[in-house]
Each structure stands twice: as structure tokens, then as C-alpha cells.
Amino acid sequence: MASSTALSFNFSTLSTHFKQNQAPLRGICNVNSVSLPSRGIRPGSFRRLRVSCAAKPQTLDKVCGIVRKQLALPADSSITGESKFTALGADSLDTVEIVMGLEEEFGISVEEENAQNIVTVQDAADLIEKLVEQKAA
Amino acid sequence: MNIRCFQRNFSAAFPPLVPLQLPSPMETHLWYILPDEVKNSALLNQYSELLSPCERESVSRMRGDQLKKRALLARALVRTTIARYQTNCQMNPRSLRFRKNLYGKPEVEWRNEDNFNPPPLHFNISHTSAMIACGVTVNVPIGIDIEEKQRRTKNNIIAFAQRYFSPYEVKVLTAISDPEVQRQEFIKLWTLKEAYVKALGKGFSAVPFKTFTIRFRDTTMRNFHPPESSVSEESDIVVESSEDPTDPANNWRCALLEVAGSHYGAICMEKDRIAGENAPPKLTVWKTVPFVEDVCVSGTDAVLVLGGMIEQ
């Protein structure tokens, strides 16, 4: 960038409150595959864990792949469940294309009201799992 | 005494924005920035000082410098554009506050102070990687959308249209044999549909794309307009609701433009019943680098009306 003054514009210092995004535990959690050392933990106590678990990691991975492809993001760019579509540079046409790609990949149909509420990659993965479950039911 | 007038000298570093009268009813103002033309770090610093802490945080969360710059310029464009319009006295772009309506459409939050009548100003923005645009009207809501002319979809166009567009629109697109022309017409339709939904301001789920049709209709009103005005001879653009196709009283005007040779731009605004329905709305377009240069480009090659009854 050409600059006619000594001041250099550093985008990353724009906000003093900016915190690094942390990878959520939600997308990784899958009760079935967790093995715990036996310490007398009763099966009933897993119930609370299950409620806060979101989509399976495989679902999240597939969503990330579709998003990465649609937005032509480099392979090494990090996409997590917390990633917001807008922050990744998706405009409304991208978002609709992503939803269409997800519909094809998972064999589901996403209603407009639901599509509008998708803000993060995790939202998309959660919605997919819900629709896949409904379809199987 | 209006205390707000003291804000005129809010910062010695900012040259004043060229003040403007509000658009009149049935008039649209369109302002756009080309991000590639804005490289000066000091200028970007100035812009960032206009933003609220919340906006700055949003900008910093964008991935990569290009997206951050785009987000920064978008907020700077909105703030400086609205601040230009003189009401009681010059507004400070930094002190403008924004909120979202019930459905998420951004609007200005005017402060409720004595002797201050908020201007009946409406705005809407849209951006691509190469342009950021802000449309302004008075009295009536406005929605705009811009897309790069060269935009390609990852999905097959007809498959996409079958999924999201109305049956009539699918028919129109399918009838186009040249794939490049088909792609262009698709992008034009997309921008028009986006602009309409954004003008309505009720969110995308309130009016899904499939429930309305954008139709180009030949107008028979060509000799209504005096020869001097550069009225487009192209078709009128109407919006028909699928729920009630027999109702021709659609309240929305759409126009389609080519901007800067590189983008399609769609503008949609509600008809102002008081101002009169027959006069075509007037459009004025500026290319701007806020605080540096404003160029009125209406009537030049930078703005071509492709459809809709609108004059420059």
C-alpha cells in the first residue's frame, strides 16, 4: 500500500478489545467417542454433557470444506465453528450458494427462515444435523 | 441556540464534508467508493476514528486486511454520507448512532433532543470486493444491491434459479441460449431481488425469493418525457407478488444500473404517494473518497440505466 506519511495503518490494532477467537469445545464434543477413566462416573451424569454438544465433528468438517470451496479460501486458513460467514467474506450470494451446497451434500432442504439465522459455521452444522435427524425420523 | 452547531469544529484534521441538501421526494442519491483507490494510511486512520468502538471491533474481526479495509470503508462511507446532508446544521459523522430495526435492517438512531427534527432520511448499503455503495432517499425506504458484472456462481445457474427464483424467472433464464448472456441476466435478477428484499427491510425470511417475480415490462409512456431528459428507453421493472399476481398496485420502483463499467447495481424504493407516481424518480450518483474528492458521475459513462423508469 502506498503511504505518503510515516503513519502506517495497522488493521489489527484497530480494536483494543479484540480477543483471539478460541476454538469452541462444542464442535469437538461427541459423547459416544469419549473414553473416560472409570472413576465411578455414572452414565446418568453424561446427560448434561450431551445437551451442550452440538454437531458431530464430521458434519462440521464437511461444512468447513464447502465454505472453504465457495469462498475460495486458502487450505491453511483456519475455519472453526465460531467463524462468522460475514467475517470470512461471504456475501449474500455466497451464503445462498453455501446453503445450496449443504443441501446437496446432506440431502436436506433448508427453509428461508432457517437460512437467515445462520451466522456462524457452527449454526450451519447444527441446522444440518437437526434437518438430517428430522428426515430420518 | 442549538448546541449541536458547536460540533462543526470537531477535529482540525478533517477537512469539512461538502454539505448537501437532502434529496427531494422521489429522488435517489447514490454514493460509491472504489476501495482500490483508497491507499493512503493516514486517510484510513482518519476513517477509523469515525467509527464507534463497536464498529471498530467488528472491522477487526474480519479475516485479512482486504476484508478489514472493506468493512472500514463501508462504515466510513455510511457515516460521512449521512453527515453531509444539512439539516439544522452540519452533522458530525463520528457522533451518528446506528441501530437495527426489528428485522436487522440498519438505520440511523437520531437522538431525541429539543429543537432537533430528525431528517426523514433512509439509507442502504451494499458492497463487493471492488465497490462499496450507499443509497439515500427521503420519506421512503430504499434497498440497493451491487454485484460485479463478472461474478460467477459455483452452482449451475438454472439449478440455482430453480431452487430460489420464481417459475417465471426460471423460464426467462432458461430461454437464454448464450451462457454468458444467461449469466449476466442472472446476476441482474439477483441484484434486483436483493434490492427489493432489502428495501422492504423485513428480513429475507419475510419475503423469500420464490414468492415474488421481477419482470421487465415494456412501457408505453415513452413520449411522456421531454426530449432533453436522459430517460432510459428501456423497460420498466415491476415486482409481482406470487401470492397475489392479479394485484398490479405494486408499491415499489426498481431500477437497474451499470456502475463504473464493472458492476450491476439495483435500486428499489417505495413509491411516495404524496410526491406523485407519474414522474420518474431522479437519480444522482457520486464517486467519492470522503474528505478527499467527490465526483458527480450522473450522466457519464460511469452510470448507465439498464432498466426501470429513472432519469439522471
Description:
- The complex is a heterodimer of chains A (137) and B (312).
- Chain A is mainly α.
- Chain A folds into 2 domains: 7-36, no CATH class; 57-136, ACP-like (Non-ribosomal Peptide Synthetase Peptidyl Carrier Protein, Chain A, Orthogonal Bundle), CATH 1.10.1200.10.
- Chain A contains 5 helices and no strands.
- Chain A is globular.
- The relative contact order of chain A is 0.14.
- Mean pLDDT of chain A is 72; it is low at 1-7, 15-41 and 43-52.
- Chain B is an alpha+beta fold and 312 residues long.
- In chain B, 24% of the residues lie in helices and 25% in strands.
- Chain B is built from 6 helices and 13 strands.
- Chain B has helices at 41-50, 53-60, 65-84, 157-164, 167-174, 179-200, and strands at 27-33, 98-100, 106-108, 121-127, 132-138, 142-148, 212-217, 236-241, 252-259, 263-270, 282-289, 293-296, 303-307.
- A 5-stranded mixed sheet of chain B has the order 4-5-1-11-12, with helices on one face.
- In chain B, helix 1 (41-50) packs across helix 3 and helix 2 (53-60) packs antiparallel against helix 3.
- Chain B is globular and about 55 Å long.
- Chains A and B meet through helix 3 and helix 4 of A and helix 1, helix 2, helix 3 and helix 4 of B.
Q: What is the CATH fold-level name of the largest domain in chain A? A: Non-ribosomal Peptide Synthetase Peptidyl Carrier Protein, Chain A
Shape of chain B: globular
Counting H and I runs of at least 4 residues, what is the number of helices of chain A? 5
The total domain count of chain A is 2
Strand content of chain A: under 5%
Helix content range of chain B: 10-25%
Hey, roughly how much beta strand do the residues of chain B contain?
Answer: 25-35%
Strand order across the biggest sheet of chain B? 4-5-1-11-12
CATH architecture of the largest domain in chain A: Orthogonal Bundle
Q: Largest interface, per-chain counts? A: A-B, 36 and 39 residues
> What is the radius of gyration of chain B?
20 Å
Biggest sheet layout of chain A: none
State the low-pLDDT regions of chain B, or none: 1-12, 221-232
Organism (chain A): Hibiscus sabdariffa
Family (chain A): Belongs to the acyl carrier protein (ACP) family.
Keywords (chain A): Chloroplast, Fatty acid biosynthesis, Fatty acid metabolism, Lipid biosynthesis, Lipid metabolism, Phosphopantetheine, Phosphoprotein, Plastid, Transit peptide
Protein name (chain A): Acyl carrier protein
